[in-house]
Amino acid sequence: MNRIVRFNSLLFAALFLLFLPLHAKNQEPLTARDYFKELVASGGIDRTTKSHACFQDDAKADNFFLIGESKSLRDYTQANGTFSKLPKSTQELMRKDFLMVRGYLKGVPWRGEEFLDKEEDSWVSDPRMLDENTPVRVRFSLNWQTLRYKYTVELLNMDSTYRSEVASSGQCEQLPAEDQPRSSE
Question: Alpha helices, DSSP H only, in the chain?
Answer without folding.
Answer: 2-26, 32-41, 70-79, 88-95
